[in-house]
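User: Fold this; tokens only.

Assistant: Input:
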Amino acid sequence: MSRRAAAWLSHPATGAVCRVLIGGLFIYTSLPKLLRPDEFARLVAGYRILHPDLVNLVGITLPWVELIAGAFLVIGILPQSSAALISALLVLFMAAGVLALARGLEISCGCFFPIGGDRLTWTTLLRDAVLPALALQPLLWPSTFLSRWEPTRRG
């Protein structure tokens, strides 16, 4: 990686922008799911990955996890932990999408539930592949810029 790219990626303002973008996105997408957990649970069931007994639990708890992780990331509370959780969720969502497409399911991706009703496609997954990079930035280059929490310094 060039020095210029490394300097840009590690700049505190870049970290703040990434935190606000990805955290804000998670807050934004969690709110409709919180207001309509029954519809979100039906969407989760459409992926046909979870045992039916777990669908309602995920439909109720996942939006709260998204909201809290997003809010913590935006505010800067435990930003590295929040970024790690959001990165893991994004990878999990993409893996679920790949499995659904590989099995030929024609379902809504649920990315911006209920707005838009995006169909799950390979293009959708390519679009979503950018998001883990945004979430990893605060994890790899922690900063206190616009943050309420000090990152852990190792060394």
